[in-house]
């Protein structure tokens, strides 16, 4: 079920928008008549995403760039702006993660996740700055509960997403005067996504156990995140900035993993 909003003519740019949660976000905006650009590393993912998004009949652009490369990010932004004009909605969601004990993690393994999630998000925001609609742009970073809660075997992602949370808050402070709102969505486990497969549940049994720890008793759906992104991009969220918003069925307040049966 999707919110009934209209993004006709609005330029929506989604970094990491070719699979999973971020593609779900892009799809929501494409269905609501936004002019949507999606960016990621792999041409095959870009092509598949463009094919999916184009089915809604609107204008779609797919671009290849690695968020670790500021020049590539800048080139993608300039190409999208040349086609669709100033950016109204900027989503930064490219990320990498895997399970590894810190004692076994190589410096490069730690660094690669920080480079993609944290430095990549800075590159996206920094390079987009000259092209954001002023006033009115909505910047949405995709963070994770690991940004605020420690999670074993994910020291790399915990550190990186904590940084994303602070980027969100500081740039909300700095960019508010230009009428730009900056927020982050912190999803819980969402459907059949790469993040869930790698980190949370890779069998029906482990999924059942994980769902039992969520107050609403289920994993989220792509549209749960897409609806929140559309709300954040809409005038209804006009006084919302600097917020890290959990969308997780209450999962992050459920610290009581050892509650009585
Ligand atoms: P996913 O399907 O693996 O999506 C990651 C996206 O980022 C892909 O489009 C990938 O495409 C792109 N990407 C990866 N590295 C990149 C790079 N260096 N430069 C540019 N693009 C890059 O993952 P997901 O599970 O949907 O997660 C999406 C976001 O939600 C992430 O920020 C994640 O931390 C967050 N999140 C997910 C969950 C969950 O339940 N899945 C929960 C909490 C938070 P290419 O491979 O083509 O580059
Ligand atoms: N456990 C421990 N270390 C790992 C690892 C794992 N599962 N996967 C990768 N690494 C380490 C590598 O060993 C390497 O370090 P080294 O040079 O010291 O050996 C370092 O991470 C970089 O790996 P590489 O495969 O070269 O990185 P990449 O740039 O090709 O890919 C990743 C980046 C590793 C994050 C990859 O998993 C990826 O592309 N992920 C995107 C999708 C994703 O993670 N989605 C879920 C989002 S929540």
TrEMBL record:
CDD domains: TER_DECR_SDR_a. It comes from the Bacteria. Keywords: NADP, Oxidoreductase. The keyword Thylakoid does not apply. GO terms for biological process: fatty acid catabolic process. The keyword Lyase does not apply. One of its GO terms (molecular function) is 2,4-dienoyl-CoA reductase (NADPH) activity. It holds the Pfam family adh_short_C2. Gene3D superfamilies: NAD(P)-binding Rossmann-like Domain (3.40.50.720). Belongs to the short-chain dehydrogenases/reductases (SDR) family. This is NAD(P)-dependent dehydrogenase (Short-subunit alcohol dehydrogenase family). It comes from Quisquiliibacterium transsilvanicum.
